Amino acid sequence: MSETLARRVGRLVSGGFHALVDAAENLAPEAVMNESMREIERAIDEVRAELGKVLAQKHLAAKKMADESNRHEALSESLQAAVNNGRDDLAEAGIAEQMDIEARLPVLENTIADCATQEKELESFIAALQAKKREMQQQLQQWRAAQQRSAGPADAAGGDLNRIARDAEKSGNTFDRVMGRQNAVHSSTEAAQLAKLKELEDLSRSNRIKERLAALKANK
After folding, report:
1. What angle do CA 100, 90, 77 make, to 5 degrees?
2. Sign (positive or negative) of CA dihedral 5, 125, 127, 133
3. Cα distance between residue 60 and residue 76, in whole Å
4. pLDDT > 70? residue 220
5. Distance of CA 158 to CAs 27, 103, 219, Å?
């Protein structure tokens, strides 16, 4: 999950009812609270969408890992057959593919582990946001009850409702200012150095392939 979304969830969950009402200043507190709860609902939808992406990635990585493992096992049988028939060229090609698979497997394992961690985190965020929404709904009800007790005459209550209606649109526009929001460095390596490193990797890979072929022949 992006850091921006994580910070947003933290801000929404940690925000206090009274602080939000105070921040509303002369605007209608009820309208600001309702907008705050709508933002929580939007955040829940965003976290759920992110969770869906993570689950899909986890599923694809797990499937790919199973396919790679099966392919590696099948190649082992083919390699021995190639060596038995004196086809070193085929054996080297098979060994090269096995080495590629072995390089990918740890990455797939890490991807699955990372997805599992993100899955738990996102699920906890959804639960926290839902709990925060319920808390705000309860506090808003209590605030309404307190307002009714202190309003006095019915015309005063009516005036307050009219003010809320007048200020609702303005409070919606001001909400982003009340809640607030908040962004990369990159490095580069010289092309010549990269080319040398690539040549070194290719040489090392070729030597490892020949070593494995020699080991297969020794066990023939």
Report:
1. 75
2. negative
3. 25
4. no
5. 16, 71, 93
Name 140's Cβ contacts closer than 8 Å, sequence gap at least 6.
17, 30, 33, 34, 37
pLDDT at 215: 83
CA 199 to chain centroid, in Å, comes to 36
Q: What's the CA gap between 115 and 23, in Å, rounded?
A: 38
At 47, which amino acid appears? Answer: V
Identify the CA nearest to 28 among candidates 150, 166, 154: 166
Beta carbons within 8 Å of 159's beta carbon, 6+ residues apart: none
Q: For residues 78-104, b (16+ Cβ closer than 10 Å) or e, as one string?
A: ebeebbeeeeeeebbbbbbebeebeee
**What does residue 28 show for φ and ψ, rounded to 5 degrees?**
-70, 115
Would you say the C-alpha torsion 96, 98, 101, 102 has a positive or negative sign?
negative
Query: Which DSSP letter does residue 26 get?
Result: T
| pTM for the model | 0.64
CA 214, 215, 216, 220 torsion-angle sign:
positive
Closest CA to 31 of 132, 129, 128, 143: 143
Q: Kindly report, residue by residue over 71-101, the tens digit of the pLDDT.
A: 999 998 899 889 888 888 999 999 999 999 9
